[in-house]
Amino acid sequence: MEIKISYFYKIRFFKPYMIPFSTAISDPKWYHQSKGLDYVFKDKNNVYNGIRATPLAPIMTFDGQCVGVKNCNYSPEKCLFLANYYKQLKSLDFSSIVKRIEELSFKVKQIEKFEEEPIAVLIVYETPLNPCSERVMLRKWFEDNNRELKEF
Fold it and tell me: What confidence score (pLDDT) does residue 57 get?
């Protein structure tokens, strides 16, 4: 099964078999219809919104470690936030996380009865053009585990 990466804005272009998994510390309110982080719903395109990949979200103690785009040196090796986020990812059992994402994706397929193979899409805030993003560390973590994480 394919796992890809994208950002919140792109969800509006997803098909029902594309299942977004937020990896953000906190999500935009619309992603849960302003009903709390546990609220999941289908949007007008029949795409599930509100699913979180909580183990992949940066832990709150990292909040404030990012110096922002204007002060960033765009080097993940020198960015305290990205360095700590990568340590967090490395502490996780990659196979277990992927298995959970795949199982949930196939449950959605079974419930919705779509023909296509599900595609899980990890969601971050930043566009692919932003070099200072969790996307960089998520891709590295996937590569370290011999799996590609393509952009959607």
Answer: 94
Low-confidence ranges of the chain (pLDDT < 70): 60-78
For residue 72, the tally of other CB atoms under 10 A from its CB is: 16
Q: Which long-range contacts (CB under 8 A, 24 or more apart) does 8-12 make?
A: 8/123, 8/124, 8/125, 9/127, 10/152, 11/43, 11/47, 11/49, 11/123, 12/43, 12/45
Q: In whole angstroms, what is the distance from residue 42 CA to residue 50 CA?
A: 9
pTM, whole model, 2 decimals?
0.91
Closest to 88 in 3D by CA, of 61, 115, 120, 126: 61
SS3 call for 94: helix
Q: Measured between alpha carbons, how far is 59 from 84 in angstroms, rounded to an integer?
A: 9
Q: What is the pLDDT of residue 62?
A: 54
- Where do the structural domains in the chain lie, given as residue ranges? 2-151
